[in-house]
From TrEMBL:
The keyword Transcription regulation does not apply. Residues 269-315 form the F-box domain. The lineage of its organism: Eukaryota, Metazoa, Chordata, Craniata, Vertebrata. GO terms for cellular component: SCF ubiquitin ligase complex. The gene is FBXL4. Keywords: Leucine-rich repeat, Ubl conjugation pathway. GO terms for biological process: SCF-dependent proteasomal ubiquitin-dependent protein catabolic process. InterPro entries: F-box-like_dom_sf, F-box_dom, Leu-rich_rpt_Cys-con_subtyp, LRR_dom_sf. It comes from the Eukaryota. This is F-box domain-containing protein. The keyword Cytoplasm does not apply.
Length: 613
């Protein structure tokens, strides 16, 4: 009986929408387009470049300079319309899919929405809040990385921020493979906003690019006053309501059919509750998190299945960073008692998450955690890391990448996580004392990232401790470490013989003349990835030693060396059949003709050679 009444009510609503909604909508639209259009005031469009870079996930450059850093996106263009590799541009840390192929890369989280493509982001503040009419990104090298443009209701320069901070998507797309690396001005069609903004966020995915994308400037165009036409919202009309036929409404009992014995059979729910519990669990496991929460509200049966803790052994909240707060985290708390892998990367900025909300969740759900991703989580403080150390005794993976606002004292708590196997501290303010304490107690480390950790005073001391305490180490990222010498590198090569990945990019204090790279090659036969980026002293002898001792090599970056010839590269390519990536950009003895010749002989290897024009 209730079902029949519900269907009758639905029929009434449908007929009303047909009779009134379309007529009202059309007449209202005509009124706006005819009567009001003439009265519209002339609104001047404002054009402005970014005033300040507020936040970002990664960059190629150093924390102590401007070359290849995200800070170059502030202000007017430095390079555009020129194309090529320029130090005055903004460059993200990685490109392509090679980093996903490395042993240090964590497995992807289940239930990540297919529409979520973002890998990096940057937030830009502009001088004046406007109603955006266009956002233009000046890309100067290998364009196509931008996958989402967002706007925020918060004015970052305001002394009285609103309690409710809203993010709206202006434009979203998929990763793009642009055929040419030439510069372009990217200006997609954007949606209209109901609020003015001077805070724009670009999200990027460089997985389809052949080399690092470079961005020069961002232009925000908009109007100071809200456009009149945007005040009127066209009522939504269901496409089904455009039909004049009511045939589908004539049988309100269509969900019920009479069987041969006169009994009524219910076909409405498909007898979902008769399926085995495990089968329904398998079906709902394919839903994204929002769909899972929506399904839980439909009936008691699905609420039971969608609230089962087994559905929440892995949880990635990164795709929902703009909406996540203490309340939503508390809503999930009772469902995550069996949680093992948690991704909170990018979440919690501007007060969305607090210590109270985070600690409450961790005390209930942290007991079984083995993986915790907290990249760019600026709500974190020392108390949060203390809670992690107390509530997650079995934690094996911890990512604090770009948590650059964490006080150096907070990192001391990591040493209590003695089962750690993967630790990412890229762009953090960890100091030497805390790092040595971690290495003293976390002896099971397999993967360690100390890229751009500028507060460590003596990397030789840290690396020497690694060689003694962490002999099972498989990957080590020392990107842009300031003071590593051949002494520390020699101890590392002897103590950590299982190393497969080693990033020594922009470690300018290492000199090939000391024999450190040859010694490295002889002692690390398992090497699959070696980055010697911007070390101008790398020579033919180093390359030949790699060819003789490292047959498993897959990724080699020797960008910027002036002493490597085509003959040693040919030996390397012949001796390392698994090689996938070879970056010889700015190698003065390897010109475009040699690269073309080697690429023809070894088509399975991506040989990179950037240019400037």
């Amino acid at each position: 009986m209730l079902t029949l009444l519900s269907m009758f009510y639905y029929i009434c609503l449908r007929r009303r929408s047909r009779s009134g909604t379309r007529g009202e909508a059309l007449s209202s639209r005509r009124a706006v387009e005819s009567g009001q259009r003439a009265a519209l005031p002339v609104s001047v469009e404002v054009e402005q470049y970014a005033k300040e870079v507020l936040d970002f996930s990664s960059h190629y450059g150093s924390e102590n300079s401007m070359s290849y850093t995200m800070w170059n996106l502030a202000g007017s263009p430095n390079v555009y319309p020129s194309s090529g590799d320029f130090t005055q541009t903004a460059v993200f840390r990685a490109y392509g899919t090679w980093w996903e192929q490395c042993a240090s890369a964590p497995p992807p989280f289940r239930r990540t929405p297919k529409s979520f493509h973002s890998q990096d982001y940057i937030e830009l503040a502009f001088e004046e809040p406007v109603y955006p009419t266009a956002v233009e990104v000046l890309e100067t090298y290998h364009p196509g990385a931008i996958v989402q443009i967002m706007a925020c209701s918060l004015n970052p320069f305001s002394q009285n921020p609103p309690a409710d901070v809203r993010w709206e998507v202006l434009w979203a797309g998929e990763p793009t493979k642009v055929l040419t690396p030439q510069a372009r001005q990217f200006s997609p069609s954007i949606k209209q906003l109901s609020f003015p903004t001077n805070l724009i966020r670009l999200e990027a995915n460089s997985s389809l690019l052949k080399y690092y994308t470079e961005l020069d400037a961002v232009i925000l165009r908009g109007q100071r006053e809200r456009p009149i036409l945007s005040l009127y919202k066209m009522p939504r009309i269901d496409i089904c309501d455009l039909s004049d036929s009511d045939d589908e409404l004539l049988d309100p009992g269509a969900s019920f059919r009479q069987t041969g014995d006169g009994k009524h059979m219910n076909l409405g729910n498909g007898y979902f509750d008769r399926l085995p519990y495990e089968l329904i669990q398998l079906i709902v496991s394919h839903l994204t998190l929002p769909d899972l929460c929506r399904l839980a509200q439909t009936c008691k049966l699905f609420h039971q299945h969608c609230s089962d803790p087994l559905q929440y052994t892995q949880l990635s909240l990164q795709p929902y960073w703009a909406r996540l707060n203490d309340t939503s985290l508390g809503y999930l708390q009772s469902r995550c008692t069996l949680l093992q892998r948690l991704n909170l990367s990018w979440t919690g900025s501007r007060g969305a998450l607090t210590f109270s909300g985070f600690s409450s969740f961790m005390k209930v759900c942290g007991g079984n955690l083995v993986c915790l991703e907290l990249s760019c989580c600026h709500f974190l403080n020392e108390a949060c890391l203390e809670v992690i150390s107390q509530t997650c005794p079995g934690l094996q993976e911890l990512n604090l990448s770009s948590c650059d606002r964490l006080h150096h004292q907070a990192f001391m708590h990591i040493s209590k996580l003695t089962r750690l196997r993967r630790l990412v501290l890229y762009r953090t303010k960890i100091e030497q004392t805390a790092m040595l304490s971690i290495l003293t107690f976390c002896t099971e480390l397999r993967h360690l990232n100390l890229g751009s950790c500028v507060m460590i005073e003596d990397y030789d001391v840290v690396v020497s401790m690694l060689a003694v305490r962490c002999r099972l180490l498989r990957s080590l990222d020392l990107w842009r470490c300031r003071n590593l010498t051949e002494r520390g590198l020699a101890e590392l090569a002897v103590g950590c013989r299982l190393l497969e990945e080693l990033d020594l990019g922009w470690c300018s204090t290492l000199q090939s003349s000391s024999g450190c790279f040859q010694h490295l090659a002889r002692n690390l036969p398992r090497l699959r990835k070696l980055f010697l980026t911007a070390n101008r002293t790398v020579c033919d002898s180093d390359i030949e030693e790699l060819a003789a001792n490292c047959p498993a090599l897959q990724h080699l970056d020797i960008l910027g060396t002036r002493m490597v010839s085509s003959s040693s590269l040919r030996k390397l390519l012949q001796a390392c059949p698994k090689l996938l990536l070879l970056d010889v950009s700015f190698c003065s003895q390897v010109d475009a003709r040699i690269v073309q010749e080697l690429s023809g002989l070894f088509p399975n290897v991506a040989i990179k050679k950037s240019f400037t024009q």
